[in-house]
Write a structure and sequence with these properties.
There is one protein chain. By secondary structure, the chain is mostly beta strands. The chain has 2 domains: 165 residues, TolB, C-terminal domain (Neuraminidase, 6 Propeller); 143 residues, TolB, C-terminal domain (Neuraminidase), CATH 2.120.10. Helices cover 12% and strands 32% of the residues. It contains 5 helices and 23 strands. The longest helix has 18 residues. The radius of gyration is 21 Å and the shape is globular.
C-alpha cells in the first residue's frame, strides 16, 4: 500500500509539472540587498560601525502602488539600514537598488549595540506591507530587533497616504494583547497557522464564524496566501514543493478545498525556494517574492548566487487550464478574463 501511494504521488507530481502552462516571469533578482546611498562615505561609515551589515538584509514582503513596488526588510538580524523601501518597476534592470521610503532623512536609524532605537525613528522592524484600494500603505511593525527578538517598541500598524506621503494613522498593540512568543502575524479571511498544511477561514459577518476549509495534503505546508477578490482565486505558497498553488473559492461548494481541487501556478526548485509573500495588483498581476529565509536564519546565504527574487504573471493566464480557472458566460460565449479597475 505504501508503494502504491508513493507511485501515485510520483505520477501526480509529474502531471503537475506537465500541467503548468504560463509560468511566472522573473522581474528582479538580487545576490545581496543594496541601497541607494546618499554618498559612498555614508555607506562606508555605516558598514564600519556595523549599523549596516549587507548579508543581514533580507526582503520579506512586497506590494505595488502605481509604478512603485514596496519592499520591506525586517530586522531579523542587526545591521538592517532601512526597513521600508521601494523600487520603480519600469526599470529594465533586474538587480535594482532599494530606495528607503519615504526618504533617507526619515528612515536613517542609529541602533546601538544593546538594541535600543533612535528616538527619531518610528519603525523598528517592518514585517508586512499592504496597499489598499484607497491608496494607503499599511505597514506592520513587530517592534522587535534581531533574531533573539529584542523588543524596542510596541507592535504597531502604520497607515500612510501614498498620494501625499503622509502618516495619517498609527495603532499600538498593548503587550497584554499578545501571547508569549507571538510574532504579530496576519490572519486574513483565509488563513493558516504557521506553516501547517491545513487552511481555515474566518467569516467577518455576521458572527465571526470560524471553520475548517480543507487540507492541502502531504507536504502541503504553506506560509503565505492572498485572495484575489476579482477572480475569487486564493493563491498560496507550498513551501516543501517550491511552488505557488491556487484554489478557486467561487467553486468551494462543488469543489471543496483538497489535494485534487488545487491548481499549480508555478513550480521551480531554484527561483521559488521559500516563497515569503505574494500579492495581486490592481491590473491583475500576481507578484511573488522568494528569499531562502531558512538558510538566512540558521546558516549563511551564498553571496555568489541569487538569493532573492521577485516574479510576476497575469492571473488570467496563470490559472488558465488549471483547477482554478473560472469561466463565465457572456454574450460572445465563455470567457475567463477579469476586468480589473485602473
Amino acid at each position: 500500500m505504501t508503494t502504491i501511494r508513493w507511485l501515485l504521488g510520483a505520477v501526480k507530481t509529474a502531471y503537475e509539472d506537465y500541467a503548468i502552462g504560463v509560468k511566472l516571469d522573473e522581474k528582479f533578482s538580487w545576490k545581496n540587498v543594496e541601497y541607494d546611498w546618499l554618498s559612498p562615505l555614508l555607506k562606508e561609515n555605516t558598514i564600519r560601525t556595523q549599523k549596516y551589515v549587507p548579508e543581514n538584509n533580507l526582503p520579506l514582503g512586497l506590494d505595488l502602488w502605481k509604478d512603485e513596488l514596496f519592499i520591506n526588510v525586517p530586522g531579523f538580524k542587526l545591521g538592517v539600514v532601512s526597513f521600508l523601501n521601494y523600487v520603480n518597476i519600469s526599470s529594465v534592470l533586474k538587480n535594482l537598488i532599494l530606495k528607503p521610503y519615504p526618504s533617507w532623512k526619515v528612515i536613517l536609524i542609529d541602533i546601538t549595540s544593546n538594541g535600543t532605537l533612535a528616538d527619531n525613528f518610528p519603525i523598528a522592524s517592518a514585517i508586512r506591507v499592504r496597499v489598499d484600494e484607497c491608496d494607503r500603505l499599511w505597514v506592520m511593525d513587530s517592534g522587535f530587533i534581531g533574531y533573539l527578538a529584542i523588543q524596542v517598541k510596541l507592535p504597531t500598524i502604520y497607515i500612510i497616504d501614498l498620494n501625499i506621503y503622509l502618516l495619517i494613522k498609527l495603532h499600538w498593540f498593548p503587550i497584554s494583547h499578545l501571547k508569549d512568543g507571538s510574532f504579530f502575524c496576519v490572519r486574513t479571511v483565509y488563513f493558516h497557522v504557521g506553516m501547517q498544511n491545513r487552511t481555515r477561514a474566518l467569516s467577518i459577518e455576521p458572527f465571526h464564524d470560524y471553520y475548517f476549509v480543507g487540507d492541502r495534503g502531504p507536504n502541503g505546508q504553506s506560509r503565505v496566501s492572498f485572495l484575489d477578490e476579482k477572480s475569487n482565486v486564493l493563491f498560496y505558497a507550498q513551501i516543501n514543493k517550491d511552488a505557488v498553488y491556487c484554489w478557486n473559492t467561487e467553486k468551494r461548494k462543488e469543489k471543496p478545498y483538497n489535494l485534487n481541487t488545487q491548481g499549480v501556478v508555478d513550480m521551480n526548485s531554484d527561483s521559488l525556494v521559500f516563497v515569503n509573500d505574494l500579492k495581486v495588483d490592481r491590473d491583475g498581476y500576481l507578484w511573488v517574492l522568494s528569499d531562502r529565509l531558512p538558510v538566512f536564519i540558521y546558516s549563511k546565504l551564498n553571496a555568489n548566487q541569487f538569493n532573492y527574487r521577485i516574479l510576476r504573471g497575469k492571473v488570467s493566464e496563470l490559472i488558465a487550464g488549471t483547477a482554478c480557472e473560472y469561466k463565465k458566460m457572456c454574450k460572445q460565449g465563455w470567457s475567463s478574463d477579469f476586468a480589473y479597475p485602473n
